[in-house]
């Protein structure tokens, strides 16, 4: 694994908002198939990092290369086209539409690029794919319900499912389990990670729950005040003095 | 999933109306012509409304279409109904495409009022320009159809109804395509649409241009049905208001709705002016309130309810 070229190379990333430094000296390599956990206290810069990689925020300086292609300067749409998708800390779905409609439009946009967007959307092929995704993400029973009436957990699942239908090579999940009850968290992540492993997607996910981190990731990036203070295996990271002090907060 | 019978209903209903027009009294044929002409503009506003955009200035395109017909007639002696119609629709479409580069960056009240502003500029120019008819406007000759000058308005009625059928079918199809489905999603969450990989700006630009073409076509057909154009009944901001009113009266549920809504509006206006000439504002306002409070889905929601309870 170590000898393969990284799929994502982040170099010297800096992001400032006036006097606030939201990201500084960020250097990360991610290899294909890795599942990376991003941890850090509130305001550490995790979402900011996700936003920069996915083109929502433009870094003040630095570079982000995806498979050799420079992402800095590209917007969310172009980054999606390049093969990187994301989910959101607060789920971003179409709240007046049903779960099935949400997935269908996501699929249609992903599959009907260019002039194909002028063809009828509800093709038998896409309907089959949609039902497949509904099953894989355990959303069958919510299919015809409007997002408005659904719990935060179901919305999060839908949010992730919508990000995945474009078959991205890298997926960034911003706090996938926030707003989900403790009892449901593991079941939820099992569903998500299993579906993603099947497709060999490289995953980076932001997470506050260390039990979740330990269970699913192969590597941890710990953020503190915009900087990465640890980049190591979850076992080492959780034992690391700096991580304990600045992320987990067990040392006082 | 419910089968969509809209295109069948449009086609059969349209043909029946064309046949009915052959035996119907003149005043009914006139009402149908006015109603269907205006309904084309409503069809475009429906697409925008579903996307969460309300234009309070589409009289700009309506007027452009109407005045193109007038200029074609008076300056160039063009009488052919199709050349006039295409002229009006294309010019409005071109204007809409150009203005669309600005409009696609605005939402809500800014989108609504920017459109108003543009229509007011055109209104001002026309009122101040003698060669464009100033406040009086122009009378327009009855169009020829395939080189024949018809003796009655019926052939023009057939053309208008046919254009209405074709437009309704096209928009109905468009609304089923991927790009056509990007109405509620854009209204609900633009960021998500971008992250799914579709440009919201491009989608809105297309919808806006389509609505301009339709409003231009509507204006062109209206000018020919009325046999005249003038700024107050074609470009004034009150005309834009009427268009928005009819859109809400019709409801966004189906491409047939604008045609029903526009007819109701024509009948309402005709009778209101006959029975109580001073109560027009009161009647429009009252209807508006009734719709918003009791029928937020417009007249169409009544029809679809009836349809569901009978089937
Ligand atoms: N648009 C902005 N303008 C100004 N400051 C911002 C902006 N976005 C983020 N920041 C600042 O950047 C820092 C990092 O924020 P970020 O949202 O990335 O934190 P986070 O690690 O995701 O925290 P949380 O766990 O609460 O989601 C914070 O100090 C925040 O206030
Ligand atoms: Mg965050």
Structure keywords:
A: 252 residues, alpha/beta, B: 311 residues, two-stranded antiparallel sheet, 15 helices, 2 strands, 75% helix, binds magnesium ion
Largest interface, Cβ cutoff 8 Å:
A-B, 32 and 22 residues
Number of domains of chain B: 1
How many individual β-strands of chain A? 10
**How much is the radius of gyration of chain A in Å?**
18 Å
Outline the low-pLDDT stretches of chain B.
none
Q: Which spans of chain A of ≥5 residues are poorly predicted at pLDDT below 50?
A: none
Q: Give the mean pLDDT of chain B.
A: 92
Quote the average pLDDT of chain A. 89
Tally of alpha and pi helices of chain A: 9
Q: How much helicity do the residues of chain A have?
A: 25-40%
Strand content of chain B: under 5%
* Sheet/helix structural class of chain B: mainly alpha
- What strand line-up does the widest sheet of chain B have? 1-2
What portion of residues of chain A belong to β-strands? Answer: 15-25%
Which CATH class of chain B?
Mainly Alpha
Outline:
The complex is a heterodimer of chains A (252) and B (311). Chain A has 252 residues and is α/β, with parallel strands linked by helices.
Give a verbal description of the structure.
The complex is a heterodimer of chains A (252) and B (311). With 252 residues, chain A is an alpha/beta fold. Helices cover 37% and strands 24% of the residues of chain A. Chain A has 9 helices and 10 strands. Chain A has helices spanning 46-53, 76-82, 99-111, 124-136, 152-164, 182-198, 210-216, 234-239, 241-248, and strands at residues 8-17, 20-30, 35-40, 61-66, 69-70, 84-87, 170-174, 202-206, 219-224, 227-232. In chain A, strands 6-7-8-3-9-10 form a 6-stranded mixed sheet, sandwiched between helices. In chain A, strands 2-1-4-5 form a 4-stranded antiparallel sheet, with helices on one face. By secondary structure, chain B is an all-alpha fold. Chain B has a single domain (5-310), classed as ABC transporter involved in vitamin B12 uptake, BtuC (Orthogonal Bundle). Chain B has a two-stranded antiparallel sheet with strand order 1-2. In chain B, helix 2 crosses helix 12 (237-250), helix 4 packs antiparallel against helix 10 and helix 6 runs antiparallel to helix 10 (200-226). Chain B starts with 5 loop residues before the first helix and ends with a helix. In chain B, 47% of the residues are buried. The complex binds adenosine-5'-triphosphate and magnesium ion. Residues 46-47, 89, 174 of chain A line the site of magnesium ion.
